[in-house]
C-alpha cells in the first residue's frame, strides 16, 4: 500500500517479465481501519522487485512457472532485506498440482529484529463440471534471534459453482503452531468454514 512504479512486458511465447520500484514502503498494521494500531512506518526504502513467469498449454497439459526477487534497504539498521521465491503448477485431465517456496531475510530490521522466514506449500485440486475438490499444505518457519516459530497448515475443501458467478464451498483447516522458547504456548487448532463467493 505504498506509491510505486511498475512495468510489465507483453507476454511472448508464454513468457512475461515485470519489475517495480518503491521509494518508501509503509506497512499498514492489521487494524489500519482505525479501531486499533494505526499506520506504521516500516523504515524500508528503495524496494526493487523483479519477477518472471511462464504460462502456456503444451498439448493437453497446462503449465505455469514463476520466480521473483525483492530487495530493500533499512537505512536505520544499515542492512538490506531480501526475498525470493519460485512456484509452479501443472494441470491435466481436471487435476491441478502446484507448489511454491519463498525465503525472506532480515525482516523487521530497524524496528524489532532481523528475522528470517521460509515458507513452502503444495496442493492438489480436481475439478469436474461445477464441482472442485482439493487439499493443500503450508509450512512456515519464522526465526528471530533464538526464537523459532513453526506453523503447519493443512486445508481440505470443495466447492460447487451455482453459475452466474455464484460459488459455494466448505473448507476444513488443521493448524499447528510450535515455538521453541515457549513450549507451553504450542497450540493445535481445527476450524471449518462455509464459503459463499459472488463475483460480477
- The residue-averaged pLDDT reads 86
Strand order of the largest sheet: 1-2-3-4-5-6-7-8-9-10-11
Shape: globular
Strand composition percent: over 45%
Structural class: mainly beta
The helix content is under 10%
Distance between the termini: 25 Å
- Largest sheet entry: 11 strands, antiparallel
Total strand segments: 11
Q: Write down the secondary-structure element order.
A: EEEEEEEEEEE
**Which stretches are low in confidence, meaning pLDDT under 50 for 5 or more residues running?**
29-40
- Measured on Cα atoms, how large is the radius of gyration? 20 Å
Q: What's the helix count?
A: 0
Tell me what you see in this structure.
This protein has 200 residues and is an all-beta fold. It is built from no helices and eleven strands. An eleven-stranded antiparallel beta sheet has the order 1-2-3-4-5-6-7-8-9-10-11, with no helix packed on it.
Question: What distinguishing features does this structure have?
Answer:
200 residues, mainly beta, eleven-stranded antiparallel sheet, 11 strands
Overview in brief:
This protein is mainly β. The protein has strands at residues 5-8, 15-27, 40-58, 61-74, 79-92, 95-107, 115-128, 131-144, 147-163, 166-179, 187-198.
Amino acid at each position: 500500500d505504498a506509491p510505486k512504479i511498475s512495468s510489465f512486458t507483453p507476454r511472448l511465447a508464454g513468457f512475461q517479465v515485470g519489475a517495480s520500484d518503491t521509494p518508501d514502503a509503509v506497512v499498514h498494521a492489521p487494524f489500519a481501519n482505525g479501531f486499533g494500531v494505526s499506520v506504521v512506518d516500516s523504515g524500508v526504502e528503495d524496494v526493487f522487485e523483479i519477477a518472471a513467469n511462464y504460462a502456456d498449454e503444451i498439448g493437453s497439459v497446462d503449465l505455469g512457472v514463476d520466480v521473483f526477487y525483492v530487495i530493500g534497504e533499512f537505512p536505520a539498521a544499515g542492512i538490506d532485506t531480501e526475498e525470493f521465491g519460485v512456484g509452479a503448477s501443472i494441470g491435466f485431465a481436471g487435476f491441478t498440482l502446484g507448489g511454491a517456496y519463498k525465503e525472506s531475510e532480515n525482516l523487521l530490521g530497524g524496528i524489532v529484529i532481523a528475522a528470517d522466514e521460509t515458507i513452502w506449500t503444495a496442493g492438489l485440486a480436481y475439478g469436474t463440471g461445477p464441482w472442485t475438490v482439493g487439499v493443500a499444505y503450508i509450512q512456515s518457519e519464522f526465526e528471530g534471534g533464538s526464537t523459532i516459530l513453526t506453523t503447519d497448515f493443512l486445508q481440505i475443501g470443495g466447492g460447487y459453482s451455482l453459475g452466474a458467478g455464484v460459488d459455494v464451498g466448505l473448507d476444513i483447516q488443521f493448524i499447528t503452531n510450535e515455538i521453541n522458547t515457549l513450549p507451553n504456548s504450542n497450540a493445535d487448532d481445527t476450524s471449518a468454514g462455509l464459503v459463499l463467493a459472488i463475483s460480477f
